[in-house]
Give the backbone structure.
Amino acid sequence: MNLRIGYGIDVHRLETGIPLFLGGIQIESDLGAVGHSDADVLLHAISDALLGAANLRDIGYHFSDTDPQFKGIDSKILLERVMELVFDKGYKVVNIDSTVIMERPKLNPHIPAMQEVIARILQVDLDAVSIKASTHEKVDSFGESRAVKAYAACLLISA
Ligand code: MG
């Protein structure tokens, strides 16, 4: 039995007038995340955790943020490609634990929908996908809604 731990962190700037994609779904919000892809900070943190656990470098190594083929891309596609790499290396996911730091909107009502999307892509039960929502207590860029951050930890096991 070969267990591998991984973690990932991602940050995106927030701006008004663009859509907010988080955890593979679109969320009603006056602020959206800015990025080369759809800027889904949670899927990016999870992708980096998975890549790290499998020692497969990082998301920017596989999907360059200057490559036109990834412009505006749905991050679910990136996460699916990450899972192909993880499976190819002989691992499957045991569980994910994650936290999104965002002052507004409230994310808790959206968490079940995000869990469903992520569990499907990772090919695990819903119970294996934990998503926590936290604010930054109105402090610094995250608390002032100028940016959003996500942390993710994962455990892989040899398939
Ligand atoms: Mg990112």
Observations:
- The beta strands are 3-16, 20-22, 25-27, 31-33, 91-101, 129-134, 147-158.
- Residues 10, 12, 35, 41, 44 surround magnesium ion (CB under 6 Å).
- The chain has a mean pLDDT of 97.
